[in-house]
Amino acid sequence: MVTVNPDGKIMVRRCLVTLRPFRLFVLGIGFFSLCFLMTSLGGQFSARRPGDSPFTIRTEVLGGPESRGVLRRMSDLLELMVKRMDMLARLGNSSEPHRAAGDTHFAVDRFPPGASLMERIQAIAQNVSDIAVKVDQILRHSLLLHSKVSEGRRDQCEAPSDPKFPDCLGKVEWMRARWTSDPCYAFFGVDGTECSFLVYLSEVEWFCPPLPWRNRTATQTALKPLPKVQAVFRSNLSHLLELMGSGKESLIFMKKRAKRLTAQWAVAAQRLSQKLGAVQRDQKQILVHIGFLTEESGDVFSPRVLKGGPLGEMVQWADILAALYVLGHGLRITVSLKELQSNLGVPPGRGNCPLTVPLPFDLVYTDYHGLQQMKQHMGLSFKKYRCRIRVIDTFGTEPAYNHEEYATLHGYRTNWGYWNLNPKQFMTMFPHTPDNSFMGFVSEELNETEKQLVRGGKASNMAVVYGKEASIWKVSGKEKFLGILNKYMEIHGTVYYESQRPPEVPAFVKNHGLLPQPEFQQLLRKAKLFIGFGFPYEGPAPLEAIANGCVFLQSRFSPPHSSLNHEFFRGKPTSREVFSQHPYAENFIGKPHVWTVDYNNSDEFEAAIKAIMKTQVDPYLPYEYTCEGMLERIHAYIQHQDFCAAPGPAPPGTRALQSPFVLAPNATHLEWAQNASVAPGAWPPAHSLRAWLAAAGRACTDACLDHGLICEPSFFPFLNSQDAFQKLQVPCDSTESEMNHLYPAFAQPGRECFLQKEPLLFSCAGSSTKYHRLCPCRDFRKGQVALCRDCL
């Protein structure tokens, strides 16, 4: 029995109280001592996975049962130390004069009654030191064992000379010199030995053959695909609003838009569901990464949302998110690089290694900023999975700019191109070129009651100017044409300002300041005219104005604006010439809703104003910009576009057993023969193909439009043969295959026929006076140029 007098009790308690601040100090000594030992031994502990204990040793690195023994012995020693610290803590925290027998025995044995506080601390520190020495001995022994194992397998870890893996030797050499350049290699078990190089290059990457002595069970066991779930249309967007997050003005704007259009999305989903009937739709797992909103890309949009900045991109992204969600697919939304890395399974490091797991998403929607971020952090996995990516690309990317080698050799290289994707993976805001997929957005659609109210509430002499930023009003010559307009109409503006009226806005203009979207819609419903100053290009506002019963007046550009003569288009991956501020409105809608005139011609401008005032127009919205039209289009893309499938058509010059083409009765073009077999997997269906030989200097885009059709680049491979030229009775004295975005084509002077050598360069865009281009065309659904009549 241990007895103490009352004074002794007081002294012990004081000592214990005094000892409390030292407990964390002592425990910290032990913890950091172990961490120091581990980190000082290099790569064996640098390969920890997220979630591993700081004391976990990767058995793949140390190898076999030996490493597990080391792990057990280290764990036992660490547990002993922690238990002793815990005993001391309980001794100090207890105010009872007696302890349990076991605890008392331990305390009395380890710390005699006469021991001072300093002696106790010294004893604990010595214990920690002893443990550290033992850990060091164990690890050194483990390293020695590992070295012996490596020596025993040296003959099995030589880089093989296998013709099936021609890059293996070079990759091993690179790993010897650079494996420490990125921590991701250590994460996957690389430790500087030949065996670890070959294991990595054969099992994580695919440059070397598998090692015969490796246990392949784990690496060959593929993840079982999840059972297919049918997509079901959704009408409630509450969960989508949660997925979108918050914290940025851009996200707040997008959420407000989605919420405001909820009822229209619900009606559209019901209509499309009825139209599709019993069509089976597999639910896709989709990652949406909005790269331009990440801090790493600068996020220049969010701070300008409340200052009149451009909203077109955010309008489109809000509608894409809503459409994907309403169609019933699984969504994950990211607006930061950290979220992107987490969802992709990016290993720690600098982005040189593949993903840690197979990509868990069927599709990834992003933009050019997000595309760059994915390439930077996915390593080799980017090449493997890039066929699943869809790039939201406002102004489009033409094939000549997309093909890296061709763009570099022929002067088409820009900051935004050269990704070597299928051009259809780029998805645009308007149908600029059929080489890309038309994604679009939606405008609010008026019901019949609202249309009646608009018709009765229009002011015949009210105009609204398209331009929320004061910089747009700096256009030269505006005083002249605005002065003419002011003679006939009351002019309204919605220009952002903080305290003082922007000096760029003339005094006769009634400026409302920046309006919330519902109030802006009400202003458009009263106005007769919506007038543009030539910028911004191709935004959503003109379609919103036309949908609210306005006439849109815009400037004709002469010469047309392009990357050759206008700073805004310089560097963009397109050679497209823009003849007006909004080419879609001019070409696909036109009069009486859209008037395009020369603002420098005062007589033409004034005559247009007079004619517009006499013209009565109803609210109009093209079907492809309704909620139903966008749902229909995205459904078709998800259902039918597969850029991961192996290429189908034969290489250029290959002659089929039976030609699928016949010359049309009027001998002007080719058609798909009725008795020809249907091309397997072709979408759009090949039977909608019509092929024309364009006039010299005419692009296929324009040649097809001349016949009321749309150019379809996916049909080019069917025409890329001598047979197509022969059926069109084109006299080819010679036929060659080359890389050129204008091929297949016929050169008149030398009677030469040219076939396309590189499938990624098939292009509807582009022309040359030297060539008659062979152009594949197709029909299209009314109000939906992206889809052929049988594409659903």
Automatic annotation (TrEMBL):
It is a single-pass type II membrane protein. Pathway: Protein modification; protein glycosylation. The chain crosses the membrane at residues 21-41. The keyword Repeat does not apply. Its main location: Golgi. It is an enzyme of class 2 (transferase). Its EC number is 2.4.1.155. Pfam families: Glyco_transf_18. GO terms for cellular component: Golgi apparatus; Golgi membrane. Keywords: Glycoprotein, Glycosyltransferase, Golgi apparatus, Membrane, Signal-anchor, Transferase, Transmembrane, Transmembrane helix. It catalyses: N(4)-{beta-D-GlcNAc-(1->2)-[beta-D-GlcNAc-(1->4)]-alpha-D-Man-(1->3)-[beta-D-GlcNAc-(1->2)-alpha-D-Man-(1->6)]-beta-D-Man-(1->4)-beta-D-GlcNAc-(1->4)-beta-D-GlcNAc}-L-asparaginyl-[protein] + UDP-N-acetyl-alpha-D-glucosamine = N(4)-{beta-D-GlcNAc-(1->2)-[beta-D-GlcNAc-(1->4)]-alpha-D-Man-(1->3)-[beta-D-GlcNAc-(1->2)-[beta-D-GlcNAc-(1->6)]-alpha-D-Man-(1->6)]-beta-D-Man-(1->4)-beta-D-GlcNAc-(1->4)-beta-D-GlcNAc}-L-asparaginyl-[protein] + UDP + H(+). GO terms for biological process: protein N-linked glycosylation. It is found in: Golgi apparatus membrane. Residues 184-777 form the Glycosyltransferase family 18 catalytic domain. GO terms for molecular function: alpha-1,6-mannosylglycoprotein 6-beta-N-acetylglucosaminyltransferase activity; manganese ion binding. Belongs to the glycosyltransferase 18 family. This is alpha-1,6-mannosyl-glycoprotein 6-beta-N-acetylglucosaminyltransferase. It comes from Equus caballus (Horse). The gene is MGAT5B.
